[in-house]
Structures are given as C-alpha cells and as structure tokens.
Model the fold of this input.
Amino acid sequence: MGLIEYQEDAVVSRTIIDKKTGTVTLFAFDEGQGLSEHTVPFDAFIYLLDGEAEIVISGKSLRVREGDMVIMPANEPHALKAVKKFKMLLTMIRS
Done:
C-alpha cells in the first residue's frame, strides 16, 4: 500500500476523506507504538490492513490481525498498541 508507510518508532496518519459527516484515515504503527486510552463522541470502525494489534475497549482486550474489523462505540474509552507493526483504516462517522 503506497498511500502510507511505516516510520521507525512512530505512528503515522494520513487523512483520505475529511467531511462534516465523517473521516477516513490511514494509520501505520511501528511495533510497540500506540494510542493511549481516549474517548471520542462518534462511532469508529477500523479495518486492519496489515500486521497485529491489541485494542482495549472499555477494559476489554482484543487481539486483531490483518483482515479483522472492529467497531469502537462512541464515548467508550479505547486504546491501541502495535503487537507487530500494523496498518489500519479508520472510518469515523460524525452523524
């Protein structure tokens, strides 16, 4: 996938669509990198394009791999960490 590449010790993002009703963003996480626990006021859908990650939603841990999909409900705390480097597509619905 040429739209986004891994960078050592980093999380890289690239917004593909940014509309009032939602966004589509590509992310590339190097191994061990992540996003700390946070909440957002919108539902979010992720699709793993490559690699392996641990996602924690409201204290429940999920191990996801290439091809897996997860819905992160609005206002629920969630965090992500790269077990192995991974790429994901995040779709956020604002309406």
Observations:
- The CA atoms of residues 52 and 89 lie 13 Å apart.
- The chain has one domain: 22-93.
